Amino acid sequence: MCSDKSAGATGLPELPDLLTLGLSDLRALDHPVLSEVLAELRARVSGGPAVTLWTFDEFAPGDESGGVA
Amino acid sequence: MNQRISAPVGREPDGFAPWPLTGFAAGAVRPVPFDQFVVKIHSRCNLACRYCYMYFAADGGWRRQPVTAAPRVLERAASRIAEHAAAHRLPEISVVLHGGEPLLAGTATLAGFVARVRELVPEGCTVRAGVQTNGTLLTGERLRELARAGIAVGLSLDGGLAEHNARRTDHAGRPAWPGIRRAAALLAGPYRHVYGGVLCVVDPATDPERVYTSLLGLDPPAVNFLLPHGTWTTPPPGLPADGTATPYGDWLAAVFDLWWDAGRRRTRVRLFQEAIALLLGAPAATEALGLRPVSAVVIETDGAIEQLDALKTAYEGAAATGLDIHHHPLDAALAHPGIAARQAGRAALSATCLACPLAEVCGGGNYAHRYRAGEGFRNPSVYCADLRRLLHHIARRVAAAAVPA
């Protein structure tokens, strides 16, 4: 996968294709962490109030707030 | 600042302009307005962590910066931010107070600047404000002032125990941990409503379970794990040159499993959540992964407009744009090749990355980590193998949870 200009580790199994899973199809899940993450992802793609996504990483938080409004 | 670097490098050869300063058609990139403004309100730090990328890395520009941003610089910065917000009709912006250690400027200065930005932006533009601090100067009174000013607080530390923060010392060599622990307790308790979360740099020499568990003990609402800044020319510590091991990927995968298998989400972990978003094809925002245009810009203590700090680990002047708020609107920076390259998506990726099945998820990793002296930034990440290891691991765990046995 990566050229001789990369680290070049090999031996990983095939990558599961998660793009075939729809966010709405994953609604009935019995995995509490994934369920919470999916609820936030649905908010990102829904037609509800816009959620601004901030790219700068050298500022905590890990949620979608860019700070206090 | 709690980033680690291996060793400093010097300047690129005179007259050489690495990619994207040459060889990249910045004009072909449709600019995305800045909506996140990192303001270096104080250029020095009260700690002297030897691994800090700000003070012990390739770029020694901090020495030429004034210690603190002068009132006229802050007024002009607020004005330029508001000008940019108005020009692009931004409904929401983020102002991140950074440094050095921004609390050295005093909470009154921080509060005054944020208030001024809120005063100047157009009606209907929400200003989200935050400060990223090492925590040693936080007291109850200062937190009250920050909370009154509507400023969230992000805490930088290397783990939740004294042993993890042994290298975070002041200029006299005294450990910073007692002050950090006090700050973490105040934030998790009476000031939780302004607690943004914790930034923790990965050290593969530590026990990931011990680090993660100790961080949970500080009860943060969110954690982000950052890879230490390094490049192909100055590799991160502990990373084998031949890619036969993936210490950072292994460390993060171990933490992911602890987070994933906990039975409930104990805290938000930004890196993991954005990875899941990208693997599922949902919108994501992080410098570490994905192809989302980076829409953050830095305003230095002297008013210089700069690219994000991580570039300073590449070479002297790598973050510079040649622009400043006294003479230029922030819009002028959108045309800079370095800014444009980070908004170009796939067009900025190396051929190697473009051929990778993880291109849309990994996105080449953090831009600064792609640097190689004499070439520039059009390479895979120096962390390529580690990112692949982690993303494969997360994908398998998500797939298993999504398709019950």
Describe the fold and architecture.
- The complex is a heterodimer of chains A (69) and B (405).
- Chain A is mainly α and 69 residues long.
- Chain A is built from 1 helix and no strands.
- Chain B has one domain: Alpha-Beta Barrel (TIM Barrel), CATH 3.20.20.70.
- Helix content of chain B is 29%, strand content 13%.
- Chain B has helices at 71-87, 107-120, 140-148, 177-188, 208-217, 247-260, 270-279, 337-341, 351-354, 359-362, 384-402, and strands spanning 36-40, 92-98, 126-133, 151-156, 195-201, 222-226, 268-269, 296-299, 304-306, 320-324.
- In chain B, strands 7-6-5-4-3-2-1-8-9-10 form a 10-stranded mixed sheet.
- In chain B, strand 1, helix 1 and strand 2 form a beta-alpha-beta unit.
- In chain B, helix 1 (71-87) packs parallel to helix 2 (107-120) and helix 6 (247-260) runs parallel beside helix 11 (384-402).
- Chain B is globular and about 55 Å long.
- The termini of chain B are far apart.
- Chain A: It comes from Streptomyces cheonanensis.
- Chain A: This is FXSXX-COOH protein.
- Chain B: This is Radical SAM core domain-containing protein.
Oligomer: heterodimer
| Helix/strand class of chain B | alpha/beta
- The chain-level mean pLDDT of chain A equals 73
The termini of chain A sit apart by: 43 Å
Which blocks of ≥5 consecutive residues of chain A have pLDDT under 50? 1-9
Number of strands of chain B: 10
**What portion of residues of chain A belong to β-strands?**
under 5%
Number of strands of chain A: 0
CATH domain fold name of chain B: TIM Barrel
The CATH C-level class name of chain B? Alpha Beta
pLDDT averaged residue by residue of chain B: 92
What's the SSE pattern of chain A? H
Return the CATH architecture of chain B.
Answer: Alpha-Beta Barrel
Organism (chain B): Streptomyces harbinensis
GO molecular function (chain B): iron-sulfur cluster binding; metal ion binding; oxidoreductase activity
Protein name (chain B): Radical SAM core domain-containing protein
Keywords (chain B): Iron, Iron-sulfur, Metal-binding, S-adenosyl-L-methionine
